[in-house]
């Protein structure tokens, strides 16, 4: 049955790749891939990487087909100058927009009919010197807010900032070279707000943001640009071609 998207709504489809092990289903996913996608999958040295890539392509293809009369294997994709994947065909109306993100153990695809959108997911068990990363990449306001928190709360806030920034970069369609310090997020208990540095032609009032914790190890952020009104991000767990 075809899914319907209303104005001001975005659907967030996600899958836990470790739970998808049925050989017949995985072979079906293989049949959805383009030749370029098959070559890309085979470049992964480890089986986990190949499995993650296969599931991510199956998710985006089957998700888009929920909203258009196009078979999953028929979608064609291109990348913009900064590497963001976009639908290249076939021509359908309305043309669904999407953003895809995956990390170890989790894959998400955000779809809407219009507007700029981006999604990012991270595994919060990732190791590294998080405060040092923040010093290099976050704005001074964000670094100050992060370091003012009790140490036990800093990891959560770091990943909130990071996923929000990555999702916004994706929505803007620019690479990370744009500079993560060129905008600041304010997380003060109310609606999430963003402020851009002078000279960046973006209206912060047009952006809506969502933070989710789909599981204990993962955090997700979605950014959607929409003039006027709120954006309802509806999360939906799925196994492509098996269940909604």
Task: Annotate the secondary structure layout.
Blueprint: E1 9-15, H1 23-32, H2 35-42, H3 47-65, E2 76-79, E3 85-89, E4 97-103, E5 106-112, E6 117-123, H4 130-137, H5 140-147, H6 151-172, E7 183-186, E8 193-196, E9 207-215, E10 218-225, E11 232-237
Helix pairs in contact: 1-3, 2-3
Give a concise summary.
By secondary structure, the protein is α+β, with helices and mostly antiparallel strands.
Would you write up a description of this structure?
This protein is of the alpha+beta class and 244 residues long. The chain has one domain: Ribosomal Protein L22, Chain A (Alpha-Beta Complex). It contains six helices and eleven strands. A four-stranded mixed beta sheet has the order 4-5-1-11, covered by helices on one side. Strands 6-10-9 form a three-stranded antiparallel beta sheet. Strand 9 and strand 10 form a beta hairpin. The longest helix has 22 residues.
Mean pLDDT: 92
Count of domain modules: 1
By CATH, the superfamily comes out as: 4'-phosphopantetheinyl transferase domain
Order of helices and strands: EHHHEEEEEHHHEEEEE
Instruction: Give the end-to-end Cα distance, rounded to a whole number of Å.
Output: 11 Å
């Amino acid at each position: 049955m075809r899914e319907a998207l209303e104005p001001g709504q975005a659907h967030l489809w996600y899958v836990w790749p470790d739970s998808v092990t049925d050989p017949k289903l995985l072979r079906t996913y293989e049949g959805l891939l383009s030749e370029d996608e098959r070559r890309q999958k085979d470049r992964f040295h480890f089986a986990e990487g190949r499995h993650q890539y296969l599931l991510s392509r199956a998710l985006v293809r089957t998700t888009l087909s929920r909203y258009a009369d196009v078979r999953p294997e028929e979608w064609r994709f291109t990348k913009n100058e900064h590497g963001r994947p976009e639908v290249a065909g076939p021509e359908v109306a309305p043309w669904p927009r999407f953003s895809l993100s995956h990390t170890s153990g989790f894959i998400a695809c955000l779809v809407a009919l219009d507007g700029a959108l981006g999604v990012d997911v991270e595994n919060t068990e990732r190791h590294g010197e998080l405060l040092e990363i923040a010093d290099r990449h976050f704005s001074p306001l964000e670094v100050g807010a992060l370091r003012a928190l009790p140490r036990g709360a800093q990891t959560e806030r770091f990943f909130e900032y990071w996923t929000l920034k990555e999702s916004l970069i994706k929505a803007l369609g620019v690479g990370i070279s744009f500079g993560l310090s060129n905008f600041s997020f304010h997380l003060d208990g109310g609606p999430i707000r963003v402020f851009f540095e002078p000279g960046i032609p973006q209206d912060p009032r047009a952006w809506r943001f969502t933070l989710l914790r789909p599981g204990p190890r993962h955090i997700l952020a979605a950014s959607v640009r929409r003039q006027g009104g709120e954006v309802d991000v509806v999360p939906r767990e799925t196994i492509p071609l098996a269940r909604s």
